[in-house]
Design goal:
Elements lengths: L6 H12 L40 H20 L3 E12 H4 L8 E8 L4 E6 L1 H11 L17 H22 L6 E8 L13 E11 L2 E10 H4 L3 H5 L4 H5 L2 H11 L5 E4 L7 H6 L16 E5 L2 E11 L2 E9 L2
Antiparallel strand pairs: 1-5, 2-3, 2-4, 3-6, 5-6, 7-8, 8-9, 9-10
Helix pairs in contact: 2-5
Length: 327
């Protein structure tokens, strides 16, 4: 640790500097700049900073909503306790994702109308075989299968309902910003048959870890960047007050409020009595109301004067006819 100068020492140092007794120039040895490793940067061809995805703000919120919804679907349909955790969100070229993936697992091509291009939902081989075992009645406490082969057509059909559920949960997630209708176009087990965009096209890849008992595996969601780019503005506003007022929660609350019961009272007059007067009331007493029979009734909604009305009958029953609003 460097020694700390006292107040008088600092004063002497400043005086010496002002009088030129102490030089501020570094010696030749201290002026040497160490060699640092560096990499040239092309400022005109900068790409995404991997993992930050700053061009698609708040997209992680949509993905987290999807993971919670899909967790509920899996748990409900398969009657097992699942957990889903998003492990990564990155950007890359479409072809790069499929490098070193000899066995793709189960892959569903999803149409997300009205959004441009299709998306991919991929269950890796480990998760695919584990889910098939569970759907056929096996215990989730068993060790996962390590089969070095592609899924058969029948096995893909067994998993089809899980992809349909995923489409519905994608719709729920994107409903925060846009109404879409996701549909499963086809299921594939061959990476060469799921080319939704050109090989060099930029895509956004979200990866989730799915766990049930001793079994686990990964789900990959792949979206072409051109599909998500038009959603940048609504995604950016997703957490603002304006957007929150337009969210599904606002619509749900509004609908529920419209269904709340409200008490309506047709009031012909009011009367104030003391407690002693109330105690003296008996059968046959006449109570005079401060009310003009020729004036309209006051209609109260939850004790708030809202309408005026005239009394009468309708279909043999007493009724009131609204004549106006209270000012």
């Amino acid at each position: 640790m460097e020694p700390i100068l006292k107040k008088n020492e600092l004063a002497n140092l400043l005086t010496a500097i002002n009088e030129g007794l102490v030089s501020l120039d570094l010696d030749e040895e201290s002026q040497q700049i160490p060699n640092l490793d560096s990499t040239p940067v092309d400022l005109f061809n900068l790409t995404h900073i991997e993992g930050e995805l700053f061009r698609i703000p708040n997209f992680d919120i949509i993905l987290d909503i999807f993971s919670r919804a899909y967790l509920t679907s899996l748990t409900s349909n398969l009657q097992r306790t699942f957990s889903i955790t998003r492990t990564s969100l990155r950007s890359s070229e479409f072809q790069d994702f499929f490098k070193d993936k000899d066995n793709l697992g189960a892959s569903g091509i999803i149409d997300m109308s009205p959004l441009k291009h299709a998306a991919l939902i991929i269950l890796d081989p480990k998760l695919s075989f584990s889910l098939i075992e569970i759907m056929l009645g096996a215990s989730s406490e068993l060790d996962s299968l390590q089969l070095e082969r592609q899924l058969t057509t029948i096995e893909l059909l067994v998993l089809k309902s899980l992809f349909i559920d995923a489409c519905s949960d994608l719709d729920k997630a994107f409903a925060q910003i846009i109404k879409i209708k996701s549909t499963l176009v086809k299921l594939e087990n061959n990476a060469r048959l799921v080319s939704i965009v050109e090989p060099a096209t930029e895509v956004i890849i979200a990866t989730f870890m799915v766990t049930v008992g001793n079994l686990s595996g990964e789900i990959h969601l792949i979206f072409p960047y051109s599909t998500l780019e038009p959603l940048r503005a609504p995604l950016k506003e997703l957490l603002t007050l304006t957007k929150a007022n337009k969210s599904n929660w606002y619509d749900v609350i509004e609908e529920e409020i419209l269904e709340l019961p409200a008490a309506i009272t047709a009031q012909s007059g009011t009367l104030n009595l003391s407690v002693s007067q109330l105690l003296e009331l008996k059968k046959g007493d006449i109570i005079n109301l401060d009310y003009d029979p020729n004036s309209p009734l006051k209609v109260l909604v939850e004790d708030q004067h809202t309408f005026y009305a005239v009394p009468g009958t309708h279909n043999g029953k007493k009724a009131i006819s609204l004549t106006g609003m209270s000012k």
